DNA sequence: GTCCGCCATCGAACCGGTTCGACGAAGGAG
DNA sequence: CTCCTTCGTCGAACCGGTTCGATGGCGGAC
């Protein structure tokens, strides 16, 4: 079942078989047919390991994501799916690598043992040692998200700052004056996760611009935390009439918390944020939100990585996406009937 | 940066380096130290491709899941995460393969090109050509789910029949007499997806046992379909007071449909089913459901696969899980106030 | 002092492909 | 008829590890 066996049965040399299959040198029509026939007969496929060893490319890309400790969110799922699909279109396989730190064993495997030709990094931090490490080695990679200093590197990302700003302006336009921000978990914020930081920046900036009274919260990635977070918000400032969130996984909990506090969405309270559309459509009322185009980001990341692999000297490229807010049903004008507004 | 370089710098032969690092033959303490020092200095790591070629094992397992066309559900995400994590603990990498059919290009890559040592199959069908193909080749694999004839093969799975039966009995015990079943999409049922079939069987069987009046529905994997499905249910039989579902992704839509029809959960209408706990807890009221232990299934699948790889002649093993129903807040006694019950 | 055995190390072959340089036959130009 | 190309094919080297059999040096037993 190796190339020598094919060569013998076809009555030619191993190199001829190789050339016939790769087309890298001309082979006479007769021999080509003969070889192809033997190959088809035996169902021969060249060994990926041998090929990788010989030409130094594995035809595999690594997808590096954080360890499972914190739950995966729906966004991450969509990324993974679209990356795999896009990679398959370019004839690349995808190797999953759960990796937190730079010194990580799994990360070392990918790079040190040369298991992959390139890597896609998820869940980028503003100061990201994995990204720094890859840049240092000049290892082909594309980040999903951008670090504090993205110059000279390849990435695709969402303009979280602008997105959250748009959410705040949307609420301010509706007349909301007291707004809360529900961020990702505190440990992620402290670790420097890009979306958490830039989202928070955008929130603070836009709130200042519009002269809003705001509070910001961190919230665990699950329903119970979301519910608790709403309780904190309404306890800290019962006059709050709206919130903006980046936290997809807490969304259901946020809604539950509001319902239990007797706040009707959107009549008494508006909710918006940055969330993948399939999750925005799951809650009732459906969430008015900047839809995260996770699948598109995944596809673009693969496009960029393949370009970088094909042209090692190409100048860095990136894509910064700013999807519009999809108006659904979770936001409305402030100052409608609210029980505790008229004591 | 290859083993020859290490050997030269340490003043020994390549084989000695190999033995020093693998420990497969004794090496004097002095040489071992010298070699280790050079290795550390240069940060040497043996090439995975070369090693795979030499000893015929890639230290990689393939995770085969259906193409992205149909959305991924939360369950699948949890599987992927836990499989990757469990595999890492055994020093295996995970290669993702989107694969529908047996003749699939991607599937051929995995097997034909020997990219992986073994495979884990997700989304098993009762008659599954991928599973048959693997069994025929005697290729080490573990299925998540079991085919119609699982004898002699390795698998982990959920007893969907028993789980759905438990749901039906729970509803019947509460006095519900007219119950609907919301299954996965019709195309998946027709394709023979195991969970859809066994779940339906369990539903039909238990309903007959308890003498219930039932209807069964297929429902797309998204919120809009769920909402539409509830409309169909209430149109077909307005006296329906409960439903059982396997369809995680439609859950939010089911709730919305009920709310829009003026049915309060759980006062007017009970909802239950088989759903991962994190999703059951997202909706309000939280779903009483048999919690799918996706992470545990993933881990067990890896355990079994590794065992099979280590002991090629071991007899087939499997794990059939039947998690209990978690009582939450979405079911209640039938026959409470219902507007259209008293015209 | 000689012989035996063990331990540590080495050299060579092998895994299964790719690729380069060379070589022989056929065909065209002179 | 010879010379020079061109085309198709072959053999050998190489990618970077692993593994087997062989070899050399040393110490202990007699």
TrEMBL record, chains A, B:
| Gene3D superfamilies noted in UniProt | 3.40.50.2300, lambda repressor-like DNA-binding domains
Entry keyword set: DNA-binding, Transcription, Transcription regulation
In alphabetical order, the GO MF annotations are: DNA-binding transcription factor activity; transcription cis-regulatory region binding
InterPro entries hit by this protein: HTH_LacI, LacI/GalR-like_sensor, Lambda_DNA-bd_dom_sf, Peripla_BP_I
HTH lacI-type domain span: 1-55
Protein's UniProt keywords contain DNA-binding: yes
Q: Name one Pfam family in it.
A: Peripla_BP_3
Query: Which residue ranges does the record annotate as region Disordered?
Result: 312-343
Per the record's keyword annotation, is Transcription included, yes or no?
yes
Output this protein's name. LacI family transcriptional regulator
């Amino acid at each position: 079942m190796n190339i020598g066996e094919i060569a013998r049965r076809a009555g030619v040399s191993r190199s001829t078989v190789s050339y016939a299959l790769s087309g890298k040198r001309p082979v006479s029509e007769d021999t080509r047919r003969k070889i192809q026939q033997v190959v088809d007969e035996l169902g021969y496929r060249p060994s990926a390991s041998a090929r990788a060893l010989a030409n130094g490319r594995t035809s595999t890309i690594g997808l590096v994501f954080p360890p499972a400790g914190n739950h995966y969110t729906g966004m991450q799922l969509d990324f993974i799916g679209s990356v795999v699909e896009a990679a398959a279109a370019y004839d690349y396989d995808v190797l999953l690598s759960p990796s937190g730190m730079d010194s990580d064993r799994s990360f070392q495997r990918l790079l040190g043992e040369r298991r992959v030709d390139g890597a896609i990094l998820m869940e980028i931090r503003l100061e990201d040692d994995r990204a720094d490490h890859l840049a240092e080695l000049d290892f082909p990679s594309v980040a999903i998200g951008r670090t504090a200093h993205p110059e000279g590197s390849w990435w695709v990302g969402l303009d979280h700052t602008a997105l959250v700003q748009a959410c705040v302006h949307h609420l301010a336009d509706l007349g909301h004056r007291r707004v809360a921000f529900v961020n990702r978990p505190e440990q992620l914020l402290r670790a420097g996760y890009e979306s958490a930081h830039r989202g928070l920046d955008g929130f603070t900036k836009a709130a200042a611009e519009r002269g809003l009274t705001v509070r910001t919260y961190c919230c665990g990635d699950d329903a119970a935390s979301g519910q608790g977070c709403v309780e904190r918000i309404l306890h800290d400032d019962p006059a709050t009439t709206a919130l903006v969130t980046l936290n997809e996984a807490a969304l259901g909990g946020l809604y539950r918390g509001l319902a239990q506090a007797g706040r009707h969405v959107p009549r008494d309270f508006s909710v918006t944020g940055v969330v993948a559309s399939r999750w925005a459509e799951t809650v009732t009322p459906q969430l008015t939100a900047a839809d995260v185009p996770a699948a598109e980001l995944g596809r673009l990341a693969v496009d960029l990585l393949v370009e970088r692999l094909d042209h090692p000297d190409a100048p860095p490229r990136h894509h910064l996406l700013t999807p519009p807010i999809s108006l659904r049903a979770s936001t409305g004008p402030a100052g409608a009937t609210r029980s505790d507004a008229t004591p």
